[in-house]
From TrEMBL:
Residue stretches making up the Rhodanese domain: 122-215
Family: Belongs to the TrhO family.
Keywords: Oxidoreductase, tRNA processing
Lineage: Bacteria, Pseudomonadati, Bacteroidota, Cytophagia, Cytophagales
Organism from which the protein derives: Spirosoma montaniterrae
Catalytic activity, reaction form: uridine(34) in tRNA + AH2 + O2 = 5-hydroxyuridine(34) in tRNA + A + H2O
Protein task: Catalyzes oxygen-dependent 5-hydroxyuridine (ho5U) modification at position 34 in tRNAs.
Name of the protein described by the UniProt record: tRNA uridine(34) hydroxylase
UniProt keyword Aminoacyl-tRNA synthetase, yes or no: no
Record carries keyword NADP: no
PROSITE patterns: RHODANESE_3
Pfam families registered for this protein in UniProt: Rhodanese (PF00581), Rhodanese_C (PF12368), UPF0176_N (PF17773)
Length: 324
């Protein structure tokens, strides 16, 4: 068993004082030596963190014992090490930015557990709709699913017309971990779609609990791994190299910091073109060294996780940390 864990989770549950809870949550992550990204909002909590197995267990137990987060579910994956380089705990208006006029606590699509989804997905009366960004579904998506050419969930209203003719079908939405579908399915219901479902726990949980059947390609994730395998039943590669067109599932960020596009690039082209998507990018004077991973953390000088306690007034909060 690998020594580290990667946790993916979200929960819609009101948080009265997000700023205060952000401080508490940041302290918790520091104490447990966790790295990753956590969003605190009035509507709930959303996070992806990595850490040693025991520290992740303590983190899950602490959140699970908080009455506000009763019922929180974690997708847990093994890792050889941290999958993040930094810790960020931030307050934002929403736990997933959508600007959609919906409240998942009042109305959302019917949740399907992974095995239920597996049995229903091939029904001729069912339509699968991918609610992720274009660069995510470019490297992997469910067989036969409808995808939208959108950069983020805020653009969903501009694409709903593409499935208006399918209102008589059962619509099943899906995304990486389930969070986008809470609002996306609610929005479809508000637009007159009546039979709306969502894959509970998203692609990641489906892969873990039901084998990932018919998920073609790889699943994009928001950490150093960039993509992960999901399908243990009938895996195929659906993406091609941005440079030469050969089949490949290797997704990277363009090594040009001015570009930073998410692209699929085969190993040969990655080596031959220094991890870039075009010759213009290859000639960027600020080109980042390509190490084969295609993942580039944001540069920062003297970064420490404790920086999160520097207030807007520039005064640092006293932090007592226990040693591991």
């Amino acid at each position: 068993m690998k020594p580290y864990r990667v946790l993916l989770y979200y929960i819609y549950s009101p948080i009265e004082n997000p700023e205060q809870y952000r401080e508490e949550h940041h302290l918790l992550c520091l104490r447990l030596n966790l790295l990753g990204r956590v969003i605190v909002a009035p509507e709930g909590l959303n996070g992806t963190v990595s850490g040693l197995a025991a520290d992740c267990d303590a983190y899950m137990e602490t959140l699970g014992n908080d009455p506000r987060f009763a019922g929180i579910e974690f997708k847990v994956d093994d890792s050889d090490g941290h999958t993040f380089q930094k810790l960020h705990v931030r307050v934002k208006p929403e736990i997933v930015h959508s600007d959609l006029p919906v409240d998942p606590l009042k109305q959302t699509g019917i949740h399907l557990e992974p095995e239920e989804f597996r049995q229903l997905k091939n029904d001729p009366n069912v339509v699968l709709v991918d609610m992720r960004s274009n660069y995510e579904h470019a490297v992997g998506r469910f067989k036969g699913a409808i995808t939208f050419d959108m950069e983020n969930l805020r653009e969903l209203p501009d694409h709903v017309h593409e499935i208006e003719h399918l209102k008589d079908k059962k619509i099943i939405t899906y995304c990486t971990g389930g969070i986008k579908c809470e609002k996306a399915s609610a929005y479809l219901l508000s637009r007159g779609f009546e039979n709306v479902y969502q894959l509970h726990g998203g692609i990641i949980k489906y892969g873990m609990e039901a084998g990932g059947e018919d998920f073609e390609g790889q699943c994009y994730v928001f950490d150093n791994r960039v993509t992960v395998d999901v399908n243990q039943v009938n895996p195929v590669t659906v993406s091609t190299c941005y440079r030469c067109g050969t089949p490949t599932a290797r997704m990277i960020n363009c090594a040009s910091p001015a570009c930073n596009n998410h692209i699929t690039l085969c190993e040969n082209c990655g080596h031959d073109h220094a991890g870039t998507c075009s010759d213009n990018c290859k000639n960027d004077p600020d080109l980042r060294p390509y190490d084969g991973s295609g993942y580039y953390g944001k540069r920062s000088v003297g970064y420490t996780p404790e920086q999160g306690f520097i207030s807007r007034r520039g005064q640092k909060t006293e932090v007592a940390l226990s040693t591991p």
